[in-house]
Amino acid sequence: MTDTISLDTEQLHATVPLSKTLGIRLSDAAPGAVRLQMDWREELCTAGGVLHGGALMALADTAGAVCAYLNLPADGEGTTTIESKTNLLAAVRAGGVSATATPVHVGNSLIVVETGLRDQDDRLVAKTTQTQAVLRS
Is 92:119 a contact under the CB 8 Å cutoff? Predict the structure, then answer.
């Protein structure tokens, strides 16, 4: 497992440019949990001012990827999402969303991460489970 390292929002944006486009901010990053935030913005919405499910899924995928990266085995060089399943549970029409990703399984070749997305009222709005492959050269 990767030692706890200091990450910030700027580093996240440099590594995952889509996170900058979506306005994702890194709150906390450790092997046991990664926390990201994203604000509701009109340009990220569908009809009726509902935050687009794809934006929510991108937030979850980013949180899961960072969590998997922080849990890489010693010889792992990176990760890539090979499977992701999201249940969208409630509409987000204002405020923002926080994502908390935690490892479910940390193996030599696969890392499974579960991410909960919550709105400004702490209501669960989505739940994602994803599998990340460990990359080696």
Answer: yes
Q: Going by C-beta distance under 8 Å and a sequence separation of 6 or more, which residues neighbour residue 130?
A: 60, 61, 64, 81, 83, 84, 85, 112, 113, 115
- CA distance linking residue 100 with residue 36, whole number of Å: 7
Sign of CA dihedral 80, 97, 46, 84: positive
Residue type (1 letter), 35: R
75: pLDDT strictly greater than 80: yes
Q: Percentages helix, strand, coil for the chain, rounded to the nearest 5?
A: 25, 45, 30
Joined together, the tokens standing for residue 94 give 């204002």
What does pTM read for this prediction? Answer: 0.94
Q: Which domains does the chain have, with CATH numbers?
A: 9-135 (3.10.129.10)
Tokens found for residue 2: 């990767």
